[in-house]
Structures are given as structure tokens and as C-alpha cells.
Amino acid sequence: MALHLNEVQAMSQFSNQSVDSWITAPSIIQLALDEEANGEKVSDIDSWPSILDLTVDDDVTCTLSADDQLESAAAFASSSLLHKDLDISNICQYLEDGTGTGEPSASSTMWIVEINPDLSTEERQEIQRNLRDKLNELSSSSPLNYESASIDLISNDIDENAFDNLILLISIAIILVVALLYLAFRTVNRVLFPFIGLTYALIWTYGLMNLFGGRFTALEVAVAPLVLGLGIDYSIHLQRRFANYLESEEDTSKAWMATCGHLFAPLTLAVVTTIAAFLANLFSPLDPIKYFGLALAIGVISAFVSSTLIVGSLHVLFSKTSGNTPRTLELPRLSSWLSGLHREQQAAILLGTIIISGASIIGATGLETEFDLTDFLDEDMEIMQSRGMLEDSYESAGWKLIYVLMEPADGDSIPADKTLLAELRGLHSDFESNDQVVGTQSRTASPTYEGPYVVLRDAILRDASFGEKYGLEVYKGDGQVYVEGTLNLALVYADLGQNNSVADPLTGDTWADRVNHTVYMENNQIVYLRNEIMVDARTSADSNKVVDDFEIMLGTTDDAGKPRGVLANHAIIHLTGDLVQLDHVLTALNTSQLNSTAFSLFASLVVLFLLTRKIVPTLIVLLPVVIATLWVVGSMIILGLKWNVLTVMVTALSIGIGIDYTIHMWRRYERNKAEGMEKREALEDSIATTGVALIISSATTALGFIVLMLSKMPLIQDFGLITALTVISSLVLCLVVLPVLLSLSEKQLSSGDS
């Protein structure tokens, strides 16, 4: 193992500029040999008794040390570096009486490689990919097996897997779309032309996204089926109307122009309101969601342009006005049944809608926001198996870092007096009592963290004379640092920062290194203080609890007994780190979901009202869309789904899709009345024509999203399912509830009741 470590460390990409530290069993033993055995190489030693004889004093036994620093290191090593089945009985026997093999046993050991955080995400991922490849190479040629896992590797594998089967998914979706189009139109031209138009739409959408410099994420997987669905929706409406005009018009160009003129109002309303609904995501506090909303808007525009211009041009050039052209698909029995349902069961429809919506509202209050990067990955993937092995084998395999930073409250420095020491001491006690901090689960709580207080305490424990020099000592009763007389911590840290002897038995850092990591000084004054705490947080729920507990622990500037309150005149205290960012992202997801839904509805309301100048039709058109968003939430409750980075988009999608359906249905009904039809006849004709077109287009859209269930990523599978249900809900509300609302509004208006 030591030879393997040397071989890996010798690679150029693992230089000191890219890797901050290596915490491994071979390096820890080598560090002990450097200190106690004049640097003898661990690779040259062939037995554990030899290592023990060289590194351990004769009077050492297997008992807890009074040296808290070494105890903390031991607690971290046993919980995070060594398998749960660690057995050191042979070592204890050898240290006790010199007999036995002296060999410890454990199924595995963990190497912790700390990558330079100043590197970009791409650079960190490249380094870790190379490290994984090298370790896999070593595994194939030795009896040792190495497995790799990290947040950066998980992110890398997500990015790679998000699009590795995207082409396959799009291909399957296109095949299904082609099949449905042929079922609807029964001619090659009316299947081939939309297919060509949609191909252009997809190229434009992803091309423009790339041109704008956006970074492709898992969210963009949803763009393709949406473009396909809306593009087919527009094409179906246009081609069905075009087929009607061809029966009386010999000039294909005039027939297409008449088609566009006939559908100008509903298409314009649908496109503008759908774009407005998606662009509402620009108000999200999360950049990926902003970009996702922009991508969806680009997709809608591309689908509309390709359906009107490209599909239209192809029909003008190649469609024939004569011949035995098959009639488009009609569903007379379904249309008749829906019409009868609207006449006879209005009360039942409204009551059922209210009950389902009410249950959905109640269920929405119980929806949780939870997210973990591994939700994107298949459990059978290598990275997931490695992560699962770590969680099963190590007590604290899920640890993450959280930071408590301090900066001057007033002036250019933090007063380095007794008050600061007292609060740093209190902070240490808070860490000891927090069971989420690594190292606090042992018999004697010894929190694993790096900060100015623990550096000072360790230095005094190692060399009591150093503490006496400044009137500092570690009280044996509670193991805490106290001072007699006046104190200037800045001078203490400045002195300790000159010490280049080894301070950390795990990383090999010197006292100077540890001071530089935790205290920043200018002109012998403390400017910043940094505490890096290891916490055990495996899920987003754990992360949220950690952040909440730390915020309570730090308090506010008004809390007299909390660090922020006591140090209000000394320092501003910040809680930060990836863990805090994740918590903020999850909070922002909820905010984004509510805001994007509200903005989408408001934008749709404004656009519809400006284009129609009628408030009642505007509200009637929007009501089924609002209900659809509620039903989506109800579906999530039934399916056991939670809000995450993908499902949070569903409500905005339901508005964008649902508004398109209701506008087409409403405009057809209004046009029929304008042409002299009675209300019942106008409604029945709307269902028989536009309603059938919506059934076909919604089927293609739903199938496009259902195809996402073939993805290797569980989160995308869930998203495909819930979005398909969103499409179905929007269709049901459009064909079942909207006609009832239109009928009731007509009765009220005709009776003079507003």
C-alpha cells in the first residue's frame, strides 16, 4: 500500500499545488517513522512489531491518553479512516507484554485526499478522474482493491450520464411521435414535414443555448421532450386546419396562409403566454433554474417558428390539393361522450374537481424538499457502489465541512483579548456537545475540527512552557485553556506561527501551517479567524439540521449569551461552506417554486388580459391551469415524490403546457360562436375538432416525457413520470372542466349576473 501511495503521489497532476494533504494509513505511519525512527521508510519494514518498536515508547499501553489532541486524532482515525471491524487486540497485547503478532486487522482503510479548493470545478474533477483511473489501474494489477468516491466525482458522473443516453431518449421519443402522427394523419407528408421541422427546432434550441454560453445540466434533459411536445401540438393544429382548407383551395400557399390567419389568435396567445410563464423562472434566485426557464422559452419559440415556417414551406412546395388524401383522425364516440358529460354531469364534475383540488392543497403542506446529488445516479453505477460501501463500513463516512468565520466588527482587526479567548473556549464546548460533529460520539467527546482555539490548546498540551510564557494553561479539570493576567492572542499566534515542527499527526502540518490555516494577521493584529468543522451529514435533511443547530448555537447579535451577541463589538461571525450553500439552495428551491408559479400565473393573466381585454374569459382560461398545478402536487404525494431540483419545475411546466391547451379550446369555442353556432353546438364542435387535436398532441407530449423514465438517472425518471401526469391532468381539465366553466359563464352573462 505504501508503494502504491508513493506511485500515486509521484504523478505530476498530484503536486502540492493541486493536493493540499494526504491522510492515509501509510502516510501517517511514515510520519511517525520520520519523527521517531530517523525517517526510515515504511516500505522497508516487513512486520508490525518492528513498526511498534520504532515508533512507540516502552511505557505506552492501549489506554486513553490525557492528551486531547492525540485523542481527537485517534477518534477521527477510528471513525473515518478505519473499517468498523477494526481489531487492535494484537497491538494491545504486544504493547502489554511483548507477545503476539502485533498486527491490527480491518477489512479496509480509507485514504482522504484533500484537493486544493482554489482550483476550478473542472480542474478538481479532472484531478480526481485521473486519481480514480490510477487507483483502478493499481487494483487490476495487485491484490489490493481501491474504490473512489467524492462530491466532485459524483458531479462529474452526473454530468457524463445526464447526456450519454440523451440521443437514445430523443430517438425513442421521435419514433413514438412519428407513430402517433401517422395514426393522426395517415399520410407521409404530414408525418415527415413535422419531423423535419422538429429536428430544426431541437438544433436551434440547443445551439442557441450553447451560443449564449450556458452550461448544460441535468435540467436541460427536459427541454427536448417539451420542444417535441409543443412542436407537435402546433403542427397538429396547423395541419388539421390546413387539410380543411385544401378541400376548397387549390393553391397550397393560399391554403397555408389562410390556416395561419385562422389560427393566428390562438397560436399567438398560446406562444406568448407559454413563453411568459417560462421566463418567469428568471426571477429564481438559482442560476440553473434561470437558465432552464430561458432554455424552455427558446424551445417554445423554436417550435413555433419551425411549425409555421418550415412545416408550412414544405407543405406549400410538396403538398397536393387533389387526390385521395386520407381524412385526419377523428374520435366521434369520445367527442359525443364528452359532450353528454358536460350537459348531464356539470355538478358532479365541479364537485369532483373541488374535492381533488382540496386534497391536493392539504397534501402540498406535507411535501418535503430533499435532495442529494446521488439521487441523479443509478445504484448500480461504480461511484454509487463505492459510496454505499463507505457508508456501510465507516462510522463517519458522510462527513462534510462547515466553517465558522470571524471578521472585524469595527476597525481593521479583531480585539485579541480575554473576551475572544472565552468565546472561542465556549465555541469549543458547543462543538463537544453537538453530536453531529465528528468525534463527539466517543466516550470522551473530542470534536474533529481545526480552529484557532484547538491549535492554541494543542500547542500548550504539547509544550506547557509555551503557555506559561503568555500566562496560559490547560486546566486539567475540563481540559480548557485559561489565562492569568492580561492577554494578547495576536502575539501568541505570531510566536506559534514561527514554529515549523510537526503539529498534526495525521496530515503532517507544522504549527506554522496550522496557524496559517486558522488565523490571518496583519501588523501583529488578528484580522480573520477560521474554524473548519467536520460534521456528519449524509442527506439534505441532515445538512439542514446541522445548519439550523449551528445558527442557534451562534445566536444573533441580540443574544447576550451567544457568540454573536458577546462578540458583537469584536467580530462579525459568518457560517458558511458547501453545507450551508446546499441548505440555501434547498430553501431557494421552495422560494423558486412558489415565485416561479406565482410569476407564471401573473404573467399569463396580464398577457391574456392585454390580448383579449376581457377579464372573465381570462380568469376562466387560467382556472383549469391553476387547478392542474394543484393536481400535480397531489400526484407527487401519491407517488411519494419530494421537491427537488427537477420536480420543482413541474408547476411552471404545467402552467406553460396547460395554458396552451386551454387557449386553443377557448378560442375555438369563441370562433364557433362568432360564426353563428349555438352555444351547445359551438362547444360540441370545439371538442370534436380542437379537442381531438389536443388529445393527439398531449399524447405525443406525454409519451415524450414518459421516455425519460428510460433514463439511467432516478431523478429524471421521476421527473418524466410526474411531467407526463401533468400533461394528462392539463388535458383532462381542458376537455372536462373548461367546457363546464364556459357553459356556466355564458349562462351567468346571459342572465345579467356578473
Can you walk me through this structure?
The protein has 754 residues and is of the alpha+beta class. The protein folds into three domains: 86 residues, no CATH class; 384 residues, Multidrug efflux transporter AcrB transmembrane domain (Multidrug efflux transporter AcrB transmembrane fold, Up-down Bundle), CATH 1.20.1640; 178 residues, no CATH class. The chain has 27 helices and nine strands. Strands 3, 4, 7, 8 and 9 form a five-stranded antiparallel sheet that branches. Strands 1-2 form a two-stranded antiparallel sheet. Strand 7 and strand 8 form a beta hairpin. Helix 8 runs parallel beside helix 10, helix 10 runs antiparallel to helix 26 and helix 11 crosses helix 25. The radius of gyration is 34 Å and the shape is elongated. It starts with a helix and ends with a helix. 41% of the residues are buried. The mean pLDDT is 84.
